[in-house]
């Protein structure tokens, strides 16, 4: 059973060497996690007509990654490119419908 994404995704990023952070940033599983949670958070923000969307909460840096409503379409376009690239056309269709709501 697939778990529901946490919105916003709470991250606790810890590393000792910069190389560890670089490797982590290049990891495909990390990219998928970030992309899926970005989509879930943005979808929720659009449905609730929020003026901004908090995508991530990096706990140990006391940092929140946010996007303003004016940039929702840009972010949806980036997500669309990703999901087209992995040929997930069901999600592409959902993204197109969300863009039409803006």
Number of domains: 1
The end-to-end distance, rounded to whole angstroms, is 32 Å
Biggest sheet character: 3 strands, mixed
Q: Tell me the helix content.
A: 40-55%
> What pattern of helices and strands is seen along the backbone?
EHHEEHH
Q: Strands of the largest sheet, in order across it?
A: 1-2-3
Number of helices: 4
Radius of gyration: 14 Å
Average pLDDT for all residues? 92
Approximate strand percentage: 15-25%
Structural class: alpha+beta
Number of strands: 3
Poorly predicted sequence stretches spanning 5 or more consecutive residues = none
Shape: globular
Descriptive account of the structure:
- The model has no long low-confidence stretch (mean pLDDT 92).
- A hairpin with a 4-residue loop joins strand 2 and strand 3 (63-68).
- A three-stranded mixed beta sheet has the order 1-2-3.
- The chain starts with 8 loop residues before the first strand and ends with a helix.
- By secondary structure, it is α+β, with helices and mostly antiparallel strands.
- It has four helices and three strands; from the N terminus they run E-H-H-E-E-H-H.
- The protein is globular and about 45 Å long.
- The chain has one domain.
- It has helices spanning 18-26, 28-47, 72-85, 89-101, and strands at residues 9-11, 52-58, 63-68.
- 55% of the residues lie in helices and 16% in strands.
Mind sketching the topology for me?
Layout: E1 9-11, H1 18-26, H2 28-47, E2 52-58, E3 63-68, H3 72-85, H4 89-101
Parallel strand pairs: 1-2
Antiparallel strand pairs: 2-3
Helix pairs in contact: 2-3, 3-4
